[in-house]
């Protein structure tokens, strides 16, 4: 068995996020894989220190990391109809790197392979990580009681959120849900929608008899294990609070983040 290659935590998370963000860009545009190529080149240079390197020369260093993931070799060997070997995916991306025909079906094919390469590297980087703080999303966007509901709606739509956390009047963390906001602002009255969107969150949740409903949030700590987190998790995300101050949010985690 190949010995696993390990990186410093800060380096691991930096490159994980680099590939994750590049993959998100590629998935929004089926013909865009340049960001993943940039990430591969940056990763390869960091690992090999070859200033005149290219994707071909970087393969050995990158594959040493990729092999930490079962998706690189083990799973493709067991299910070749569903998964492609990392080397074959990498070679496809490498060969397409300098190809001039980066459009149409060919570009979409390369983008698909680049996304798979990124997924394998992300999985490899996170192999063996078992603390919530390793997976949670930091810099959490949150709502406040004094903000207009129109702004909260804008934040949710801009970021494709179904839930957004806020600290309620009892200093407990809660969630505003897209379903509940939609129900609150969409009624039959002619001026209802504009009036309700103009309400602050505090006004909306106290707006009887048609108040805006909200859900209680479940909180956890950054040092919780993934097993503990999965036991707590239901259909909603989990709030990660500061160990010494439960009113301070430092992260958020969903089941999607743990896939």
TrEMBL record:
Name of the featured protein: CBS domain-containing protein
Any one Pfam family match given in the protein's UniProt record, by short name: CBS
Parts forming coiled coils: none
InterPro entries: CBS_dom, CBS_dom_sf
Residue stretches making up the CBS domain: 216-259
Species of the source: Pseudanabaena yagii GIHE-NHR1
């Amino acid at each position: 068995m190949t010995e696993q290659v390990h990186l410093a935590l800060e380096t691991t998370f930096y490159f994980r996020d680099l590939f994750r963000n590049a993959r998100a860009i590629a998935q929004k545009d089926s013909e865009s894989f340049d960001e993943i190529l940039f990430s591969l080149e940056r990763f390869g240079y960091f690992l090999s220190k070859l200033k005149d390197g290219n994707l071909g020369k970087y393969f050995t260093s990158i594959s040493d990391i990729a092999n930490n993931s079962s998706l690189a070799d083990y799973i493709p060997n067991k299910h070749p109809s569903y998964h492609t070997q990392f080397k074959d995916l990498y070679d496809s991306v490498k060969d397409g790197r300098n190809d001039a025909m980066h459009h149409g079906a060919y570009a979409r094919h390369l983008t698909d392979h680049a996304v798979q390469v990124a997924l394998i590297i992300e999985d490899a980087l996170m192999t063996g990580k078992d603390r919530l703080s390793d997976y949670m999303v930091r810099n959490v966007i949150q709502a406040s009681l004094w903000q207009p509901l129109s702004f909260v709606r804008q934040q949710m739509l801009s970021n494709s959120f179904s839930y957004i956390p806020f600290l309620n009047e009892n200093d407990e963390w809660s969630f505003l849900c897209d379903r509940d906001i939609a129900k609150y602002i969409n009624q039959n009255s002619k001026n209802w929608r504009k009036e309700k969107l103009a309400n602050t969150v505090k006004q909306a949740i106290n707006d009887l008899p048609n108040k805006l409903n909200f859900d209680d949030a479940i909180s956890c700590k950054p040092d919780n294990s993934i097993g503990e987190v999965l036991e707590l998790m239901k259909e909603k995300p989990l709030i990660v609070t500061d160990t010494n101050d439960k009113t301070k949010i430092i992260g958020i985690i969903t089941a999607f983040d743990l896939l």
